[in-house]
Amino acid sequence: MADLIKLDITFNTLDTFRMVIGNNDKNLEILKSLFNVDIHTKGDDILLEKADETTKKQLEKIFSSLIAIADNNVVLSERDVIYIAKLAETKTQEAIIDIYIHRLLITNTVEGKPIYAKTINQKHYIKSINKNDLVFGVGPAGTGKTYVAVLNAVKALKSGSVKKIILTRPAVEAGEKLGFLPGDLKEKVDPYLRPLYDALYEALGHKQTDDLIENGIIEIAPLAYMRGRTLEKAYVILDEAQNTTKNQMKLFLTRLGFDSKMVVTGDITQIDLPHKTHSGLVHAINLLKGVEGISIIQFERVDVIRHPLVQKVLKKYETYENNYNKLL
Fold first, then answer.
1. How many CA atoms lie within 13 A of 147 on its CB side?
2. Which of 163, 215, 253, 313 is a good FRET partner for 19, with 20 to 30 A between their CA atoms?
3. Which of 80, 101, 122 is the last residue of a domain?
4. Taking the model in full, what pTM does it have?
5. Spacing of C-alpha 269 from chain mean position
6. Looking at the 3D structure of the chain, how many domains does it have?
7. pLDDT at res. 187
């Protein structure tokens, strides 16, 4: 091995070294792939092969952040390593460390395991929901918009700050044509609300979730059923809001009652409405921007918390779509 460069970093304990390197050097392999550079270890030294000064400085920042986080007994996942590497491009080391050291608890799972905000924008999102009565969470799939909102709703229900959770979503693209589907209302709507159920089951368990639905404390309803209602002491989530029309969005937003919270989630790049039908989500965030008491949180590709390949897939599609639009 020639042209080896030693990173100017220090591991405080062997446990920290092992956690940062990862099982079978997994975290090193991730960083090798991200930076297209060979990374080696010698004792507790990290060595780079044929790396330029910019790459060296960037990796020193990443490893220093990982070390500080690991020293606080925070278990680092593959997703965390990728996220920290991405944040290092624009954020200070202190800001990166703060996400993990001062983690924001959302709620606990049914087994009692704590669930924390995983990204900067998830922290902003939760803080905005706690501060404001109406919050829009907009961004690509996999950023935790819906998942975090549902878990936060469960926390509010457990604390008694709301008496009811209402989950709604456009049931079918370009409208809510449920009549042809078999079964009762719940059976018609359920397939479209599976992501919401998954979050409820994780936080409450299947039995308690089903009991709360049976007792009407958790309500699942299509958007059309919001007409004529005023929702008080409720935590209301509108999912897939990009597929609402302007009238549907107005209908929903004007249902807000006292001591209630509304969270509207959607991805404006995934609009399935018919051609020339304007998205109620796009219209609302443009119309309501800057209104006191309303917060709009914009999630980004870096916030995607699914498999790391999802970020790469999204990046390729965005590049393709940008190039395609230039040709139009």
1. 15
2. 313
3. 101
4. 0.83
5. 16
6. 2
7. 65
